[in-house]
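#data-curation
PF: Archiving a pair of folding outputs for the training set. Convention for this channel: one message per protein, sequence first, C-alpha cells after, nothing in between. First:
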Amino acid sequence: MGQIKVFGIREFLHPIRVKVSDIVHECVMDAFQYPKEKRAHRFIYIEEDSFFYFDTRTE
C-alpha cells in the first residue's frame, strides 16, 4: 500500500497538517477505493532558509 508524502515549510504546514491529512485521505479513498483505516501520510517539514526562491516570488 502506498504512502503519501507531503513536503512544505514547517511554519505553514504544521498548523494545518491534520486538515491536509483528512482532505488527502478523502481524495485517496474516493479515487482508489482505499479503506478508511488505511491512512498512511508522512509530513516532511523543511525550514524556510533551506529554500532558494526567484526574486519575484510572493508568499
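PF: Second:
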Amino acid sequence: MILKISKLSEDKIATILDKSLMITFVIFLVIYTISTALFVMWLNWKVKKPLEKLNKAMISLSEGGTYESIEYKGSHEFMQICENFNAMSQKLNKSKEENEHLQSEKQKMLADISHDLKTPITIIQGYAKALSDGIISKDDQEKYLKIIYEKSNNLTELINVFHEYSKLDHVDFKLNLEQKDLSEFIRAYVAHKYEYIYDIDFNMEVEIPEHKLLCYFDEVQLKRAFENIISNSIKHNKEGTTICIVLEEELNDYKITIGDDGIGIPEDIINSIFDAFVVGDDSRNTKQGSGLGLAITKKIVEKHNGNIKLISDLNSKFKTIFEIRIPKK
C-alpha cells in the first residue's frame, strides 16, 4: 500500500515538473520573441534608418544633388561616419560652388577680353580702310597713321597683360625664388621710380629700414606687383598726389604698404578690387587699362605665400592703402 502511494506521488511530481518546464519554456519563448522584436525595432531605429538616410544622401550627392547635413545621435562609431560624410559633403559642395564661380568668371573674362580687343581693332580697321580708300586728306593722313600706331600698341599691351594673367593662373607656373635683401630691393625700385614720379608732378614718401630684411622672393614678379599698384594710383589720381611706400618688419612676415592721398577707391568696387576686369567707373571707362593689374598683383603676392588687402579710409591722410605681407621664411 505504501509502495503504491509512493509510486503515485512520483508520477504526480513528474507530471507537475513536465507542466512547469512547459510553462517555463513558453514564458521564455514569449520573452525571447518580444526581446527579439524589440531588438529588431531598436536596430531599425538606431542603424537601419540612419543607414538608409546616409545611403539616400550619398546617392543624391553622387547624382549632383545639393548637400544635406545628416543629424545622428547614437553610437560613437556611426556618429563619426556621419560627421565624416557631412565634412566630405561640405567640401564637395564648396568645391562645386567654387567651380561654378570659376566657370562664370571665365565666361565673363572671355566676354571682357573680346570687348577690350574689339575696340582698338575696330578703330584700326576703320582708319586703315579710310586710308586705303583714299578718303583721308594728305594733311590728316599722318594723324590717322599715328592713331593706328597707338591703337596697335594698346592692342599689343592688352594681349601681353592677358598672357601674363593666364600664365600666373597656370598650375605649372613657378616663381624664381631667391633669398635676397627686401630692403635693398625696394630701395633700388624707389630710386628707379623716383624721377618719373616727380616728372609727372606726383610726390613720394618712403620709409625703408637701413638694415637687411632677408626673405625669398621673385624680383621680376614682385616688381610687377608694385608697378601695377603704383600705375593704378597714377592713372586714377590728379597731379600733386603723394604716393607712399613703407616697409616694416613684423613677427612672422614683412609688411609692405603702398598707398596714396588721392581721391580714394569707389565704394562699389572695394570688395571686388582684386577681381579681373574691375576698374573705377566700371571697366568700360575712357581711361586705358585692362582691369587686370590688381588681379595680377594679388596672384603674384599669393604665389609668394603672402596676402594683400585694400584699406580704404577717406578720413585718413592716405585714403587708399594696399597692404602686402610676405612671409620671412
